[in-house]
Write a structure and sequence with these properties.
By secondary structure, this protein is an alpha+beta fold. The chain folds into two domains: 9-121 and 301-326, Aminopeptidase; 129-273, Aminopeptidase. Helices cover 40% and strands 27% of the residues. An eleven-stranded mixed β-sheet has the order 1-4-5-7-14-8-13-12-11-10-9, with helices on both faces. A hairpin with a 5-residue loop joins strand 2 (30-33) and strand 3 (39-42). Helix 1 (13-20) packs antiparallel against helix 8 (202-212), helix 2 packs across helix 3 and helix 5 packs across helix 10. It is globular.
């Protein structure tokens, strides 16, 4: 049985099953075997299908985490280059590969010289190798530890559940976060809500919970009986902090989110997880700063686009035009 020591929960069959369950995506994952015994699985879903033609595919689509490749121990850039060439020869007009950030360098080497379009990405990961005491005392900043103690003094309540009862709390906080970001970015509220309903309907969160069972936990924090922060955490050999949201107004100066984050990291260490993936940070300085306060390291890597037709450039041009019209502020 193939085992990838770097594989993250997003690359599991359970994740692919959960995101395909509503029928919007269809699993067309590929399996490769090489003469030297190397085996690779590329999680891949069709985004738009019309008859025998597949217009776009992704590993994975926006809002669905990272895919890339699940690799055996002797995988090299040469093997991944073969995978890219095979995908280039497929009948799919546009394929997007967003790899595990920690394998970004190997993918970049594989793509070198193939004249493929790339898009710079940045994600943050915490190394848990030395255990929680090391993470807390050496990687957390002094201000972070101070905030955690403050939250404890204020009586912030944090609990977690893997039976789905906290999903409405998470979804409600996600909705409020969308409204806050819409105001900051000058995006029409109706458009922000429409995109949120497509990306994260509450049914999708329930499907993820059902697919992962006890390996999926929703964590939530309350201040004076009001939910102020929540996150969806997927656990395997490594951890994906899949969704996070907060209500800034209700959060106030409680530092509840610091305590919530501390407890999720502590449990990951106790469970023997090796890395804690905090997800995409993009160009946001504030988001990167928050993650780095907990000892996360930035990983710069490329998303790879394989296109027979420049769908990505057309999409970006259209999005840019819409943003200009509505006064969108990144």
């Amino acid at each position: 049985m193939m085992e990838d020591l770097d594989a993250i929960p997003y690359q599991s069959p359970e994740w692919c099953e959960a995101i395909c369950a509503d029928g919007r995506f269809r699993d067309i994952s590929r399996h490769y075997e090489f003469e030297d015994g190397c085996r690779i699985v590329v999680p891949l879903v069709t985004v738009i299908t019309l008859g025998p033609a597949r217009f776009t595919a992704a590993s994975y689509p926006d809002g669905c985490g990272m895919g890339g490749a699940i690799c055996c121990g002797n995988t090299t850039a040469r093997h991944l280059r073969h995978v890219l060439k095979d995908l280039m020869a497929s009948n799919v007009f546009s394929i997007k590969i967003r790899p595990n950030p920690m394998q970004g360098r190997r993918w970049a080497e594989a793509a070198s010289g193939l004249a493929l379009t790339t898009r710079a990405r940045r994600a943050h990961v915490i190394d848990l190798k030395e255990g929680f005491d090391h993470v807390y005392n050496k990687l957390f900043t002094r201000d972070t530890r101070s905030g955690i103690r403050k939250a404890e003094r204020k009586g912030v309540v944090v609990r977690n559940s893997s039976n789905g009862d906290l999903i409405p709390v998470l979804h409600g906080l996600l909705a409020r976060s969308v409204e806050r970001w819409a105001a900051q970015q000058r995006e029409p509220l109706w458009l922000a809500r429409f995109r949120f309903r497509r990306r994260d309907p509450i049914e999708k969160l329930y499907r993820i919970q059902e697919a992962f069972g006890s390996d999926c936990k929703v964590w939530a924090a309350w201040v004076d009986g009001t939910p102020v922060a929540a996150s969806l955490v997927l656990t395997g050999r490594h951890v994906n902090d899949s969704r996070g949201a907060l209500d800034r107004a209700a959060l106030g100066t409680s530092c509840a989110n610091d305590l919530l984050q501390k407890l999720t990291i502590e449990e990951a260490c106790q469970s023997g997880c090796r890395f804690y993936h905090l997800g995409e940070s993009g160009n946001s300085a504030s988001l990167a700063h928050f993650k780095e306060r907990f000892g996360a390291t930035a990983y710069h890597y490329d998303e790879i686009l394989i296109e027979q037709f420049p769908l990505f450039r057309i999409e970006q041009s259209l999005k840019g035009g819409v943003k200009k019209v509505i006064g969108f502020k990144d």
